[in-house]
């Protein structure tokens, strides 16, 4: 795919993926994500989180302090994390969102194949292998290795090339 076409396609896909992730977290469908919803989704993904921690994750991105994350706060948060070059932007919610976006079939784990689709669109071939290796420890797309949310968050927060990739796409 040519660079231009890929970028256009990635943009469109990404908007849809973001909306899908938001809707998945907004289990009551009232247009905002509250702490209880977030905690339940995390539990479904076998990632146990304390109530206070979930409230904290929401607090970090809750611009109007209503203890919920609205769609516009959600979009703003994702945008801030994408363009952040300082590494100081709170990205706990963003990491969860990335996992949900990567888990296209909703199985609760991310396969190398699923991650490849998203990463290729976002980064192109150049950085794809590096990022895959970073997440899975392999860039072999035939690998049957799947990552749970807990494992994904671990690699997302420890990966050394995370920041470089961010600045590359910004
Ligand atoms: Ca809700
Ligand atoms: Ca809010």
Q: Care to describe what's here?
A:
The chain has 170 residues and is mainly alpha-helical. The chain has a single domain (3-169), classed as Recoverin, domain 1, CATH 1.10.238. Helix content is 65%, strand content 7%. The protein contains eight helices and four strands. It has helices at 3-25, 35-44, 51-61, 71-83, 92-102, 112-136, 149-158, 162-169; strands spanning 32-34, 68-70, 109-111, 146-148. A two-stranded antiparallel sheet has the order 1-2. The protein has a two-stranded antiparallel sheet with strand order 3-4. Helix 1 (3-25) crosses helix 5, helix 1 crosses helix 6 (112-136) and helix 6 (112-136) packs across helix 8 (162-169). The two termini are 21 Å apart. The chain binds calcium ion (CA) (2 copies). One calcium ion (CA) is lined by residues 26, 28, 30, 32-34, 37. One of its GO terms (cellular component) is organelle. This is Outer dynein arm docking complex 3. Residues 13-48 form the EF-hand domain. GO terms for molecular function: calcium ion binding. It holds the Pfam family EF-hand_7.
Identify the CATH homologous superfamily: EF-hand
- Series of secondary-structure elements, N-terminal to C-terminal: HEHHEHHEHEHH
How many alpha or pi helices? 8
Task: Provide the CATH architecture.
Answer: Orthogonal Bundle
Q: Report the β-strand fraction as a percent range.
A: 5-15%
Keywords: Calcium, Repeat
Domain EF-hand: 13-48
InterPro entries: Centrin_CML-like, EF-hand-dom_pair, EF_Hand_1_Ca_BS, EF_hand_dom
Pfam families: EF-hand_7
């Amino acid at each position: 795919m040519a660079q231009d076409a890929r970028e256009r396609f990635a943009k469109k896909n990404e908007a849809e993926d973001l909306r899908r992730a938001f809707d998945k977290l907004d289990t009551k469908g009232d247009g905002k994500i509250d702490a209880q919803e977030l905690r339940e989704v995390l539990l479904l993904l076998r990632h146990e989180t304390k109530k206070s921690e979930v409230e904290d994750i929401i607090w970090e991105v809750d611009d109007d302090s209503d203890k919920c994350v609205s769609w516009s706060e959600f979009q703003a948060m994702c945008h801030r994390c994408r363009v952040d070059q300082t590494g100081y932007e709170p990205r706990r919610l963003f990491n969860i969102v990335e996992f949900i976006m990567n888990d296209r079939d909703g199985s609760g784990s991310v396969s190398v194949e699923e991650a490849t689709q998203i990463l290729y669109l976002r980064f192109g071939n150049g950085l794809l292998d590096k990022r895959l290796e970073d997440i899975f420890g392999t860039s072999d797309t035939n690998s049957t290795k799947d990552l749970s949310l807990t494992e994904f968050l671990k690699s997302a927060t420890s990966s050394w090339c995370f920041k470089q990739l961010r600045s590359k796409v910004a």
